[in-house]
Specification:
Blueprint (H helix, E strand, L loop, with lengths): L4 E9 L2 H11 L2 E6 L2 E5 L5 E6 L14 E9 L2 H11 L6 E5 L2 E7 L5 E6 L35 E9 L2 H12 L2 E6 L3 E5 L4 E2 L3 E5 L6 E8 L3 H13 L4 E7 L6 E6 L5 E6 L3 E2 L6 E2 L4 H4 L2 E2 L27
Parallel strand pairs: 1-4, 5-8, 9-13, 10-19, 14-17
Antiparallel strand pairs: 1-5, 2-3, 3-4, 6-7, 7-8, 9-14, 10-11, 11-13, 12-18, 15-16, 15-20, 16-17
Amino acid sequence: MSVLGIDQITYGAEDLATCRTFFQDWGLALKSEAVDELVFECLNGCRVVVAALGKPGLPVAMEEGPTLLEVVWGVQNDADLDRYAAAIAKDPGFTDGNVEGARRIGCIDPNGLAVRLQVSRKRAVEVDCGAMNTWNAKQRINQPAPIYERATPIEVGHVVFFVSDVKGTSAFYSDRFGFVGSDSYPNRGAFMRCAPDGGHHDLFLLQLPSGKRGLNHVAFTVRDIHEVFGGGLHFSRKGWDTQLGPGRHPISSAYFWYFKNPAGGLIEYYADEDQLTAEWQPREFEPGPTVFAEWAIDGGLDGNTRRQKNVQGPEGKFLTEKR
């Protein structure tokens, strides 16, 4: 028994019209639209709901303004739901009912976030990915690596929150749902995955000296490093602002590109994270710029010149061309 991953997230936002354009430019499919709610899907059926702040029935937010209100995690079957329901039955805000004809259980985590579980609605997908040629392994023969004109995210891969008590909140996810620690910043941050075998992290909890609670970012998995670049360049051409990227995380090995999100916090394209098993030994790190990013471009790349923003691109057809 283990949680499989994120099935759905719900934002509370102020400007649904802007969010509609934003998430479609991001590469999500708009599945339904109402005056007070938008529902998007990733390639594998993972849902992103954007609801108007103040809509009746929404969970209480951890912070003021646009933010993430709810994370729904997927499980394998009804028997898993029964076991998890017993584990959280005495936690604040416990709920056990039907949503859109399916059972969903949940509670409020120690940080004030609405946490839900349901039998996963995600579907298996097969996608073409760029193969990497290394000195030892030539996986791409007589075939160029892909170039993507835009990204089409496969799923919501992980969520990151500022928490007031990283030890207490990480213990909650470990004790109630079986999450496993991958790596950590001692007393400051906890990278956690849903199960012993899986990607480096599905959840990252970060404690600031101020004790601030809220959303840091939501990360969307794409096929490969080339889609990180292609998606980020497309998003830049659409006029959305980069916070940081592209770049590469040394802790998870993932390539990233972060943008500012009108629905709250930041949003990330990422690919090529480490895959771990039960044999993995968690590491401890001291926070620092080079620990967060092996390399990164501040302010992003311009989608038209394909160069760092505010840097003039080459005028000739070839970099070596003389004027």
